[in-house]
Design brief:
The protein is of the alpha/beta class. The protein is built from 19 helices and 18 strands. Helix 8 links the parallel strand 9 and strand 10.
């Protein structure tokens, strides 16, 4: 629920309620995220968004103290809210930034949980900052959070950006808050070559301008890249990294964990790591559906690939993750025809099967909100590709051949492979079709592990 100030004045909560205040608020994932946290912790509570213009912050804050149990603050209120507080914790004071406020009796106490979410992102990836040379892109609110954690953990920090005066102001703030902090400011042309960790706090590369990047290349010794952006989940900065030697992380886990820590502050509830991982996966799924509609202008996700590539397995998991319906085109055809595909081949021949396959694919493509798994040969017909791409994002599962062979070894219902040398025929068909899959699909995803394939498919959207 997103309220204007006028609506918030009239609002009376029916249960313990928390809110995000900002201006402009636009689309925010916070209500959905907190709803999931309430669910896993068994809390009967609500979370709303309130659009609060800067000039109405003080009134909104007083109303919130009376009506709500706590609030989160986002731009432009993280600093402006500080004079309204009765108490503020050390990190929030040093950062000059508050994103969480707890109302305790007549007191309002401010915290910053962004820094906790950032710290846990690094911990999750096994990244230690002590003694590391870190490059920070940007100098705003998110930058101050990352910078403060870096210097308190003993990193050698370099700050860069378009406005070096603002970078120097952040440098001064850090050195005053953390005596002995190692902080330097450089232009982007003079970034030290021995940087090991790159942190992007800027909005450069965020949807819809996701092809832009704050850097043209990464220092060659970069080991790890963290980008606070989570839409897209694979940012332009992350794409600069060599996947063989540089790990990357987007900002969604930080978002989940800062929300979890806010709820701990508000109600004392603590979340098991597995619960947070589950919420993270679900949130990626919701983000994928959002991007499917807004970025790609599609309403369905379509999986193609060679037989045995895992389309049905991945399709079912993807449907559960995104909340879309799952349809296996081959299984749908069998149900409509009342016989197995192998029997259709035997009784009617491959040409008849392909004609019926085309008819059903065109029918299924007119549906909305589905994950559609195609048969291995479906994309051989251009009319099938045209039908599915009109409404769906076509993703190719480029499963390694050795994995396909292993998967097919469990199956004896593949009429096209009913030859004396099954492996040789599999190789021949695979080689004949592989280039076609790449050519017709919007994106290809490759990994031998089902869990990695699912993650890559979600993030590819």
């Amino acid at each position: 629920m997103l309220l204007t100030m006028e609506e918030f004045r009239a609002f009376e909560p029916q249960k313990p309620t928390y809110a995000l205040i900002g201006w402009p608020l636009g689309h925010t994932m916070s209500p959905e995220l907190h709803a999931q946290l309430f669910e896993v912790s068994g809390q009967d509570a609500d979370y709303i968004g309130i659009s609060v213009p800067p000039e109405e912050l003080e009134e909104a804050f007083e109303l919130a103290k009376r009506k709500l149990r706590g609030i989160n603050c986002t731009i432009p209120h993280k600093k402006a809210v500080i004079p309204l507080l009765d108490e503020i914790d050390t990190a929030a004071r040093d950062l000059h930034s508050v994103n969480t406020v707890a109302f305790r009796g007549s007191k309002a106490v401010g915290y910053n949980t962004d820094i906790l979410g950032f710290a846990e992102s690094l911990t999750r990836d096994g990244v230690s900052l002590r003694g590391k040379k870190v490059l920070l892109l940007g100098y705003g609110g998110a930058a101050s959070v990352m910078a403060y954690h870096c210097v308190t953990q003993g990193a050698y920090l370099t700050i860069t950006g378009r406005n070096l005066e603002k970078a120097a102001a952040l440098q001064k703030q850090l050195c005053e808050a953390v005596p002995g902090a190692h902080v330097a400011v450089y232009s982007r042309r003079h970034i030290p070559r021995d940087i090991q960790i790159v942190l992007n706090s800027t909005p450069v590369g965020m949807y819809p301008r996701e092809s832009t990047a704050p850097l043209h290349y990464l220092p060659h010794k970069t080991e790890y890249v963290f980008d606070a952006i989570y839409n897209p989940p694979v940012t332009s900065t992350m794409k600069l990294a060599n996947p063989k030697k540089t790990r990357t992380r987007d900002g969604l886990f930080m978002l989940v964990m800062q929300a979890a820590h806010a709820q701990t502050i508000w109600s004392g509830v603590r979340f098991e790591p597995q619960a947070c991982e589950t919420i993270l996966r679900r949130t990626y799924g919701k983000m994928a559906v959002k991007r499917l509609h807004e970025k790609h202008g599609k309403r369905n996700i379509v999986l193609c690939g060679f037989m045995g590539s895992g389309k049905t397995t991945i399709g079912r998991k993807l449907a559960r993750l995104t909340g879309l319906d799952f349809v296996d085109a081959d299984q749908y055809l069998e149900a409509q025809e009342g016989k197995k595909i192998s029997d259709i081949f035997a009784d009617e021949g491959e040409a008849y099967f392909r004609d019926r396959e085309t008819a059903y694919i065109q029918e299924l493509s007119r549906r909305e909100g589905v994950v559609l798994s195609l048969g291995g040969g479906a994309v051989l017909r251009p009319e099938n590709v045209k039908a599915v791409r009109e409404t769906g994002l076509l993703i190719h599962l480029d499963t390694p051949f050795y994995r396909i062979l292993k998967n097919l070894s469990y199956s004896n219902t593949r009429p096209l492979l009913d030859k004396p040398d099954k492996q040789a025929e599999t190789r021949r068909l695979y080689n004949a079709r592989k280039a076609i899959y790449h050519r017709v699909s919007d994106v290809s995803v490759r990994s031998p592990k089902i869990s990695e394939v699912l993650e890559k498919v979600v993030k590819s959207i």
